[in-house]
Amino acid sequence: MSDEQFNPENHKFAEASYFEDLSIGQKFYIPSRTLRDANFAAFQAASGDNHPIHYDVEYCKSQGHPELLAHGFQVLIQTASGAGIFPHVIGESLIAFIDQSSKFLGPVYYGDTVYPELVITALKEQRTTGVVTVRSTIHNQRRELVLEGEQRYLVRRRSAA
């Protein structure tokens, strides 16, 4: 039975926020997760990285590490905005993910729980668009900052200036 009142185009997480709707300091949490076998195996399979520091516990211990060491990019991908609400908040106003940079500040090991977060730090208005800069961070369960970086997104303005 068809429901004429239902419209799939209206089935959204939220109404799109445009450049003008965003503010410096606005936070977007990404759900925490504990990195275990599945995370390590999936990253190894996707990246092709076969260095034993990422999958051989005894090798890690011989190198002075207590556990498997997560690859830096395995840690970085935890800041993927799509894992949180940011891309749902900006919705159709998102034009492009422009760039990202990051610094790896401390090790992340098998069994660590990571807490990713994005915070808007700059809004650069352009004629019909704007560039949204977010600071990306990851803390571990010991409250240590293990990654910090920056991501930039091109977002539509509600109306041209």
From TrEMBL:
Which PANTHER family does the UniProt record give? BETA-METHYLMALYL-COA DEHYDRATASE (PTHR43664:SF1), MONOAMINE OXIDASE-RELATED (PTHR43664)
Q: Where is the MaoC-like domain?
A: 24-137
Q: Which organism is it from?
A: Sneathiella chungangensis
Full protein name: Dehydratase
Source species, domain of life? Bacteria
User: What single Pfam family name could you report for this chain, choosing any that match?
Assistant: MaoC_dehydratas
InterPro entries in the record, alphabetically? HotDog_dom_sf (IPR029069), MaoC-like_dom (IPR002539), MCH/BMMD (IPR052342)
